[in-house]
Write a structure and sequence with these properties.
380 residues, alpha/beta, TIM Barrel, 2 domains, eight-stranded parallel β-barrel, 11 helices, 12 strands
Amino acid sequence: MSSELFTPYKMRGLEMSNRIVVAPMCQYSALDGTVGDWHIMHLGQFAVAGSGLLFVEATGTEPEGRITPGCVGLYSDENEAALARVLKFCNSYGNVPVGIQLAHAGRKASVDVPWRGGAPLTVDNGAWQTVGPSAEPYADGWHTPDAMTDEKLARVKESFVQAAKRSVRLGFRTIELHCAHGYLLHQFLSPISNRRNDTYGGSLEGRMRYPLEIFDAVRAVMPDDMPLGVRISATDWVDEGWDIDGSIAFAKVLEVRGCDYIDVSSGGNSPHQKIPVGPGYQTGFAADIKRETSLSMMAVGKITDPLQAEHIIRTGQADMVSLARGMLYDPRWVWHAAEKLRAKAAFAPQYLRCHPELAGEPVPGNPPPPEKVAAATGET
């Protein structure tokens, strides 16, 4: 029986060799938003490892939109030039298309990196003023954000537009808007963080308004053949919070506006969340949205085993699976999954000699014949 996980998938002009996605993974290792050698190493290892799509981590559209001082940004020429270097490296040596996730942390910005505790920064160590839909801090002891005025709403929207233009210019293959995990656009969606009484708050329609305005503005500056997706938190896991019904309604409106896929995660908007974490604990949400729309679905969350990933695709819960921690633990996850499912995955030519079907080859003066390579990897 052939593997569904290793079948090709296409969205607009993006052609994926399989349904496996390397998720955006914050590295907290940039300087003033500018990527460096760590990011070449981090992304480069996945670029040669045969997945269907690889994402750059959550990328702030303005300095105040970064989660930590170490987060990546795309708001300056220096940021853009550094990302161009990383992307050139991945495209020169890799076999995987690369996308970018554009984000703004809102009220969850201005915190320290995780390995130093992740607590809100103080003035002495570089804190900045955060913003949000309302002056509601994430939790006790966190910064109180400025409720966004019309001027700030316009400024942040324009920052997304400019970052999208830079992304297109750089040659990224897809853009994903981060509307999840308690960051700014999720904050507008959720009634526990959006307490506004103007046209950007109150009803579901009002709370969706600003994220949809940003979606429309970004879609307008992208080529028609470039897919645009949205990562959402399907539920806040908090009573009276954002929930799957709101997520389905949001997805239906996004579909009409030209969205191509939904990356379905959950949580992150309240310290009171109670999440029943376990293998595939979020895939049911992806399946719920998929049943109600024709959008492509990307499932994430505790997907670690190839048979588990195969089951998600084969049973129609989602069209793609996205792995983060599993990839960090095993950067060759795709190769090992292909071996387990008796499928084919792309290999960098420099690494062909480790392919199970080409073990020991090539040897000096006796390279494997092209037809043997094609049979082993599916590459022609």
